[in-house]
Amino acid sequence: MKYFLQFVNILTTMYTLNAKFIDACSVGDIETVIALINKVDPSAGNNLAIRYASVNGHVKVVKILLDDPRVDPSDYNSKALQNASINGHVEIVRLLLEDGRVDPSDNNNFDIRWAREHGHMEIVDLLTEHMYRLDGPEYNKNVIV
User: Fold this and answer.
1) Quick one: which of 81, 88, 128, 135 is 20 to 30 A from 115 by CA?
2) Rounded to the nearest 5°, which phi and psi values hold at 120?
3) If you count DSSP H runs as helices and E runs as strands, how many of each does the chain have, helices first?
4) DSSP assignment of 103-131, as one string?
């Protein structure tokens, strides 16, 4: 029973640290993000930390998260890119596109459609340019090998 209680205590501590980390990413608390990133799983909850940082426009947090190989910005149908696109966070969209794992054509071009609907034309241009560049996802669909 003693070991079980120790295990439960460890799990509770890990859960609490992960929750604090995700909250820090959500509000842009750089100090806490840096202090906790190596003590938690920054990809927990389908990469919730980068999704929250993206929706709230925290560029520095997104940069920190992208530097960690455990974080996958394409997780959950590239939701981090969707969040940044819908909310007009141009710099975050650029960062995510530079990462290479996100695909702006996911979900029938949801990101482009919603960015357009919300009047974020600079983001529409970025996403379109990214898709149709020579090494982009759409251009390469038509290449015969």
Assistant:
1) 135
2) -95, 70
3) 9, 0
4) -TTHHHHHHHHHHHHTT-HHHHHHHHHHH
Residue whose pair of structure tokens reads 């596109």 in the numeric block: 97
Instruction: Look at residues 104, 77, 106 and name the one whose alpha carbon lies nearest to residue 93.
Output: 104
Question: Which run of H or of E encompasses 22?
Answer: helix 2-27
Query: Hey, what domains does the chain have and what are their CATH numbers?
Result: 2-141 (1.25.40.20)
Buried b (16+ CB within 10 A) or exposed e, 27-66: ebbeebbeebbeebbbbbeebbbbbbbbbbbbbebbebbb
pTM of the model: 0.82
